[in-house]
Amino acid sequence: MGILKKEENGLENLEKITHVENVKLSEDGKNVIIIDQTKLPNREEYLTLHTAGDLYEAIFELKVRGAPAIGICAGYGIYVLARQIETEDYDRFLEEFRKYKEYLDSSRPTAVNLSWALNRMENVVTSHSDLPVSKILKLLEQESRMIQEEDIRMCRAISEFGLSLIHDGDGVLTHCNAGPLATSQYGTALGPLFLGKERGMNFKVFADETRPLLQGARLTSHELAKSGIDVTLICDNMASLVMKNGWIQACFVGCDRVAANGDTANKIGTSGVAILAKHYGIPLYVLGPSSTIDLNCASGEDITIELRDADEIKTKFYEEPMALPEVKCYNPAFDVTDHTLITAIVTEEGICYPPFTDSLAEVFRKKRS
Ligand SMILES: CSC[C@H]1O[C@H](OP(=O)(O)O)[C@H](O)[C@@H]1O
């Protein structure tokens, strides 16, 4: 993120935010380097990930997070691990590669980009069984870089389409974080806001803090404020009132897995935002790349929801526990927003309107053409 000028907001910092290097391959190709997002906004610390354990822990503990960023990290990560497999025997190489893949894939179940990226990297190996391992490694490096480069292009296109849905001066409500830190550049749900700012447009953003891990408070308000975008941080339970007050003209949210019928898994609380938006007659837009659409999931019923530790609710951000040790907790990291509550799904191929079964399938037809 570079050195952000504390006293200045606005365009001086905009590019440092929209083009943050949150996930990258080290110069020598032996490590993945990430910004530790659990330390933001107070400290900007970088982590060097080399082992399978480093990568698993970084994803599981949300040091790198956001569906596309997880996919990019997994792509670079499996390449870094593949370089550590000491054999020229193809079958042995594939066997070890698959062990690493299975391990990384087990770190978080909901964001489809993780398995999507790992499957894509495995395809490179299985479709080149005739090549020496050294050549396969070069192809793996190329593929891992393509995953990131494609995401940059997808987020930029999503930002353009998303910007067409809002007007200068609009109030926009966001939930969790789907900015550059969660992706590559610009982001998805936040991308249109940064792109609009570059063009001199101004929005009034209301960012849900997003309990329990506070991605909205820690990350979204940071990215927006440092870019000079008007952002008001609210507790999640304030979303209804700001909508009732008429301060919101659109809700922009990200996604972790979009089913074929448009049901969308996103950060816990998104379905509540969608129900409120429907009640107040406010459009709710899901913004995400085609790499987050899973046509193998017929509906939200098919999406696995990650359950996380009780400490994230009871102790993580408090000096003392906020509930007794014996008190049970339920901590789903995501929920599924029914497609009937979604106005449109914004992808890099265009804005998908209901019936989503048709419009989402069209996204992939366009990509193939
Ligand atoms: C651009 S994808 C962002 C998406 O991922 C977040 O989940 P997490 O912070 O647990 O990785 C959240 O659902 C965002 O909408």
Automatic annotation (TrEMBL):
<protein>
    <recommendedName>
        <fullName>Methylthioribose-1-phosphate isomerase</fullName>
        <ecNumber>5.3.1.23</ecNumber>
    </recommendedName>
</protein>
<comment type="function">
    <text>Catalyzes the interconversion of methylthioribose-1-phosphate (MTR-1-P) into methylthioribulose-1-phosphate (MTRu-1-P).</text>
</comment>
<feature type="binding site">
    <location>
        <position position="108"/>
    </location>
    <ligand>
        <name>substrate</name>
    </ligand>
</feature>
<keyword id="KW-0413">Isomerase</keyword>
<feature type="binding site">
    <location>
        <begin position="65"/>
        <end position="67"/>
    </location>
    <ligand>
        <name>substrate</name>
    </ligand>
</feature>
<feature type="binding site">
    <location>
        <begin position="266"/>
        <end position="267"/>
    </location>
    <ligand>
        <name>substrate</name>
    </ligand>
</feature>
<dbReference type="GO" id="GO:0019509">
    <property type="term" value="P:L-methionine salvage from methylthioadenosine"/>
</dbReference>
<dbReference type="Pfam" id="PF01008">
    <property type="entry name" value="IF-2B"/>
</dbReference>
<feature type="site" description="Transition state stabilizer">
    <location>
        <position position="176"/>
    </location>
</feature>
<feature type="active site" description="Proton donor">
    <location>
        <position position="256"/>
    </location>
</feature>
<keyword id="KW-0486">Methionine biosynthesis</keyword>
<dbReference type="InterPro" id="IPR000649">
    <property type="entry name" value="IF-2B-related"/>
</dbReference>
<dbReference type="InterPro" id="IPR037171">
    <property type="entry name" value="NagB/RpiA_transferase-like"/>
</dbReference>
<dbReference type="InterPro" id="IPR042529">
    <property type="entry name" value="IF_2B-like_C"/>
</dbReference>
<dbReference type="InterPro" id="IPR011559">
    <property type="entry name" value="Initiation_fac_2B_a/b/d"/>
</dbReference>
<dbReference type="InterPro" id="IPR005251">
    <property type="entry name" value="IF-M1Pi"/>
</dbReference>
<comment type="pathway">
    <text>Amino-acid biosynthesis; L-methionine biosynthesis via salvage pathway; L-methionine from S-methyl-5-thio-alpha-D-ribose 1-phosphate: step 1/6.</text>
</comment>
<comment type="similarity">
    <text>Belongs to the EIF-2B alpha/beta/delta subunits family. MtnA subfamily.</text>
</comment>
<dbReference type="InterPro" id="IPR027363">
    <property type="entry name" value="M1Pi_N"/>
</dbReference>
<feature type="binding site">
    <location>
        <position position="215"/>
    </location>
    <ligand>
        <name>substrate</name>
    </ligand>
</feature>
<dbReference type="GO" id="GO:0046523">
    <property type="term" value="F:S-methyl-5-thioribose-1-phosphate isomerase activity"/>
</dbReference>
<keyword id="KW-0028">Amino-acid biosynthesis</keyword>
